[in-house]
Amino acid sequence: MSTITVPDELRRRVKRLASLLDIPQHKVLEMLLDLFERDLIEEHAPEVSPEIRGELERARNLVESEDPAWAERSRRLEQAAASGLTPALFRGRWGVELESNA
Q1: DSSP class of residue 56?
Q2: How many CB atoms lie within 10 A of CB 79?
């Protein structure tokens, strides 16, 4: 393990986010770097063909119409993933937030 020097305001922001998410401060930095890297990679990702997008959307609509509970859980997971939350952050508690809110 090593240390880095950061401005006090940045340290306070990381500390506040870690407190809100109830995770270690290094996980906040890891999440932020993951988001930043993902944004860089997505800028250079090849475009998916409209035909494939259409087929995936039709399949999703079919599954969601047959299982509304699954559809809701899927939407919550997608929102969590889009915000940078990953299963590794929950250490064995993954899915608990789905059960309590479902």
Answers
A1: H
A2: 10
Rounded to an integer, what distance in angstroms lies between the CA atom of residue 78 and that of residue 70? 12
Burial zone of 82 (CB within 10 Å; 0-12 exposed, 13-18 middle, 19+ buried): exposed
pTM given for the model: 0.43
- 10-51 confidence digits (pLDDT tens): 999 999 988 988 889 999 898 888 888 877 776 666 778 899
Domain borders along the chain are 1-45, 48-102
φ, ψ for residue 99 (rounded to 5)?
-65, -40
In degrees, to the nearest 5, what angle opens at C-alpha 88 toward C-alphas 3 and 41? 75
User: CA 77, CA 87: separation in Å to the nearest integer?
Assistant: 10
